Amino acid sequence: MPNPTAAMLVIGDEILSGRTRDANMFHLAGELAKAGIDLREVRVVSDDAPAIIGAVRALSGLFDHVFTSGGIGPTHDDITADCIAEAFDQSIDVRDDARALLVEAYTRRGAKVTEARLRMARIPEHAVLIENPVSTAPGFSVGNVHVMAGVPAVFEAMVASVLPKLTGGTPLSSASLRVMRAESDIAAPLRALATECPDLSFGSYPFHSKDGRYGANVVVRGADADDVAEALIRLKELFPDA
Amino acid sequence: MPNPTAAMLVIGDEILSGRTRDANMFHLAGELAKAGIDLREVRVVSDDAPAIIGAVRALSGLFDHVFTSGGIGPTHDDITADCIAEAFDQSIDVRDDARALLVEAYTRRGAKVTEARLRMARIPEHAVLIENPVSTAPGFSVGNVHVMAGVPAVFEAMVASVLPKLTGGTPLSSASLRVMRAESDIAAPLRALATECPDLSFGSYPFHSKDGRYGANVVVRGADADDVAEALIRLKELFPDA
Hints:
Helix content of chain A: 25-40%
CATH class of the largest domain in chain A: Alpha Beta
CATH superfamily of the largest domain in chain A: MoaB/Mog-like domain
Oligomer: homodimer
CATH topology of the largest domain in chain A: Molybdenum Cofactor Biosythetic Enzyme, Chain A
CATH architecture of the largest domain in chain A: 3-Layer(aba) Sandwich
Distance between the termini of chain A: 35 Å
């Protein structure tokens, strides 16, 4: 059976404005690879309702799972929960189970549950809550869309809450070889080997080192660890100077 | 006149597999902000022809400019140029102008122009070349799509080649204030100020500091620098402990 597929939707202006360098995409990609879920696409959109709703609908139809980050806090620019409700034609309001979580946490800290804080308990009617052990305000899943916070510590905690509940696949095995030759020098033998091993995928990622030399990391990936190990031996024979 | 809009398309498995943390997205976002071009969406897709062609067509129709990175090297997994040609119904082959650039550069270094290297001269028939001062093999523009390499040093050089040729807009002014209070505490006054200033956009980006404290960076953006400066004064009055 092929591995489940996934997409990620990053919501918010931080990355698009050049203010912030992505961290959540990198984290999720690594966790999905370990779980055997194939991340096929990432989209980053701004805090704009039509853009969010359109992307959620498109990705939810194309992939087995969609993971979103950002836009579920208490401020006026946090519109993700309302957009998800609209994308799935569900109503949304402050929900008792989410409110109870917030009341308990704020009361414990001796803080008041203000209207702004209650905004974080606005959850689509048929959503399942995702636990947030860091700062209480929950994420939620609607259908195959898992809605999580943008703050990296909270996002990572929510990923850890939701991933074990999903059915994963076979984690890909991979091996890589750093070849200090121009990519154009290794292209022909690499193509021949890739043609010979149709069950494996071979990627070549060129780089320039700081001292002005260049080379390529050749990465081989596949479901069968033995096949990958054998391909690595073949690669080392092809590029003995690696 | 509103600023031109843009999207970025990142092509390749490196980010989706969790192997590499993005750098090009962060670089381009910063350069576009300075040029007054509004980056509205980013998509990351794998080395898969239908995914690339579909994304190019969609983004090219939605935005004034599309910037792609990755997949124009000499190896078998470099399929971007062929996908762009197909997306725009153009033929593609080794083109004389691109071949001349490569022949000149390789001859200068005393290297041969192999078939693999010539693959980097495959350019759609009506494309305009983008100069690559780092490693010669050119990028290219077809219509409103600008196709660049994935290696960060080369990507950055190509962005520097192509951006001055595009008509930019008004760079947004921005100012930010670091408030050491929970986002839910600042949500109500921030919403009120945002409603009062419809020409400015106010974003709130919560964070957890390493010592366990939390707060939010409040960012105000707008076309008019004086309006932004005035809003910052208002923010400081609202949050005097910032």
